Amino acid sequence: MDAVRVALLREVLAGTQWPGAARRFAGSLRRSVVGPAGGRLLLVGTEGYEPWHLAAHLVDESAWSGLPELAPTLVRHHVRPGEPPHLSVGLGRLAAARRGHTLLVVAPGAPGEGLLERVHDARRAGATVLSLDGGDPDLGTLAHDALSVPEPDGEMDLDTVQHLVSAAAGENGTSVQRGPRRFRDRLARLADHLTAPPPSRW
Predict the structure, then answer these.
(1) First and final CA of the chain: distance in angstroms?
(2) Residues 6+ positions from 186 with CB-CB distance below 8 Å
(3) Strand, coil or helix: what is 63?
(4) H-helix or E-strand spanning residue 7
(5) In what order do the strands lie in the sheet with 128-133?
(6) pLDDT digits (tens, 9 = 90+) for 92-131
(7) What is the dihedral of CA 133, 137, 141, 143, to 10 degrees?
(8) Three-state secondary structure of 85-143
(9) Hey, what long-range contacts does 67-70 have (CB within 8 A, 24 or more apart)?
(10) What is d(CA 107, CA 189) in angstroms, rounded to the nearest whole number?
(11) What is the pTM of this model?
(12) Half-sphere CA count of 181, side-chain side, radius 13 A
């Protein structure tokens, strides 16, 4: 989703909690992977849901923002023989997560006991755990930061929130800036200014 479409989406959602919540969560993501304490970003879904689109958007944001740390390693529950290297990372990779690693879990529904155990082990080993989820209480307990979208919410769905989060993660305004602001960041800030509700006169 390009910057213009994200700006339109933010306009539609103006007055709701979601643009601000996405920026807050994106700030947590950036802080966990960028800087001296940052490390490799591991992205994992559930057995029935692989976050392909979020992985692709984060790779794009990584390139556009000049933040290579945002490009995730997609960890998959099932890897088929002969798949390319970037699609061949299985759940065993989570066992190597340590301090300095960030594990981003995307779980629209129940994550499953097996995944929860692996996430728990990664957290015990020192990894930072972040969660985009449908409100699972066990996953929420394990996460250092979580953004939950209970379904059916009626107002929002998890796929849309992923677009907001990935776009916000690539904006320099959510964390420590590196060099001059890029045109894309200025466009996003302008769109936010133009679509913000007018200040109250009372």
Answers:
(1) 37
(2) none
(3) helix
(4) helix 3-12
(5) 73-75, 41-44, 102-107, 128-133, 145-148
(6) 999 999 999 999 999 999 999 999 999 999 999 999 999 9
(7) 0
(8) HHHCCEHHHHHHCCCCCEEEEEECCCCCHHHHHHHHHHHHCCCEEEEEECCCHHHHHHC
(9) 67/30, 67/34, 67/170, 67/178, 69/33, 69/34, 69/38, 69/41, 70/29, 70/30, 70/33, 70/34, 70/41, 70/169, 70/170
(10) 30
(11) 0.80
(12) 13
Tokens of 198: 């007018």
CA 71 to chain centre: 11
Q: CB count, 10 Å around CB of 109?
A: 15
Question: Residue 113: which residues within 8 A CB-CB, separation 6 or more?
Answer: none
- Give a three-class secondary structure readout of 152-184: CCCCCCHHHHHHHHHHHHCCHHHCCCCCCCCHH
Query: pLDDT, tens digit, for every residue of 26-84?
Result: 999 999 998 665 669 999 999 999 999 999 999 999 998 889 999 999 999 999 898 88
- Looking at every residue in the chain, the average pLDDT score rounds to 82
Helix (H) or strand (E) holding 55: helix 52-65
Phi, psi of 56 (to 5 degrees): -65, -40
Q: Which percentage of the chain shows pLDDT scores above 70?
A: 77
Q: What is the dihedral of CA 186, 189, 195, 198, to 10 degrees?
A: -120
Q: Find tokens 């989703």 and name the residue.
A: 1
Residue identified by tokens 């945002």 is: 70
